[in-house]
Amino acid sequence: MRMPDGFLWGGATAANQCEGAYNVDGRGLSSVDVVPFGPDRMKVARGEMKMLACDDAHTYPAHQAIDMYHHYKEDIALMAGMGFKCYRLSIAWTRILPNGDDDTPNAAGVAFYRSLFEECHKYGIEPLVTICHFDTPIALIKKYGGWKDRRMIDAFLKYCRVLFENYGDLVKYWLTFNEINMLLHMPFMGAGLVFEEGENVRQVQYQAAHHELIASAKAVQLAHELMPGCMVGCMLAAGQYYPYTCDPADVYKAMECDRDNYFFIDVQVRGAYPVWAKKRMEQAGVVLDTRPGDEEILARGTVDFVSFSYYSSRCISADPEVLKNKARGNAVVKAVVNPYLKSSEWGWQIDPQGLRLTLNTLYDRYGKPLFIVENGLGAQDTVEADGSIHDPYRIDYMRQHIKAMLEAVNLDGIPLMGYTCWGCIDLVSASTGEMKKRYGMIYVDKHNDGTGTLARSKKDSYYWYKKVIETNGEDLA
Description:
Elements: E1 8-12, H1 15-18, H2 41-45, H3 68-82, E2 86-90, H4 93-96, H5 107-122, E3 126-132, H6 138-144, H7 151-167, E4 173-177, H8 187-191, H9 201-226, E5 231-238, E6 241-243, H10 248-270, H11 275-283, H12 294-300, E7 305-310, E8 314-316, H13 320-323, E9 342-343, E10 349-350, H14 352-366, E11 370-374, H15 392-410, E12 416-422, E13 442-444, E14 456-458, H16 460-470
Parallel strand pairs: 1-2, 1-12, 2-3, 3-4, 4-5, 5-7, 6-8, 7-11, 11-12
Antiparallel strand pairs: 9-10, 13-14
């Protein structure tokens, strides 16, 4: 089996996990810049602990990350060496508009991304750009409370217009928000939300969701207006929920969890809130503040394709006793250990078949072309005395998932645009803030304590993935 001609093989990163240079050349402070390493990380990410500036009591690995800001030409050349057809990356909002809604863009930021995109095209690599990847400008959080406030929509569209007018000739594929459903799990990371005492958390989250959904729909319309022929997609953190048993209560619980996961995408693809979501908001006492014309905006701003991250499936039960056996992997998603699956050293359960199931489920639900924009294994790597890095565990993980992807396309007929594995180059982990949790096929000499030369080197998986791309997925040995 092989992928069809034109399939977009590549890799993916996020600006806040790889660029570094967080205060260089006029870049403003963003929400991801103040999420610290250590025990307070998730408290801040969830909006439970207010942190709108950096302090001396915490460390912030993303401030330097792997310094791709100064190494991007070397890094893109390494990606080209693997034969990449596509590179999924994000733009740092505050590198373009330092305060989030500035009247004049930051010229250095605009020039940086133009040079980066030109470097991609030099090697025949198509950029796939995420407009907002977990980075709400701190200035807008202080000014509006993040996406709690409807005025964020105009700020976002101002930002989008700058991108589309400056890069429309270089970028064909766009995503509005990264893992938009994470707003319900990591509200500060996802939408700049900090909860005050006495606030109705669900009301705030769903109101912010409404604002992001309106912003996404308007961005889609603006992109099509300014860049005819472009494609704009949505993006979710995917992974099918399995019922822990065939007890109908478990089956229903799994369906409910899947619905929560698909809530945003239902709106972005179908152009309207699903009936179950309206009912759930009603039962939670949530009353959305909407404006005349919102329904029409959502209906007219539907996306062209559905992209998603997939690392693992999830397993869920309605039994409180079973729920005590919580899966270790994804700290922000409620799930229990699936006894039929093995786990990575960080506790993420490995389920290649779940990728094929997820692809089929998403296409059955939406009928839109799909794009796998994140998939990978976080693991510790050892550099041998001769400088080589043997990572058979990563190769095996990717082999099994690419095989499942090939089956979904060749045996099930799923229209899949591309596959960009996560963290093609080592970067800071979003969930833990660690460097030792490595995803890349390119090793970066940088460690949890901040030491390292930042030198790049190739792992065994680099050469393996190069062969996979050369044969369009036919040779996975």
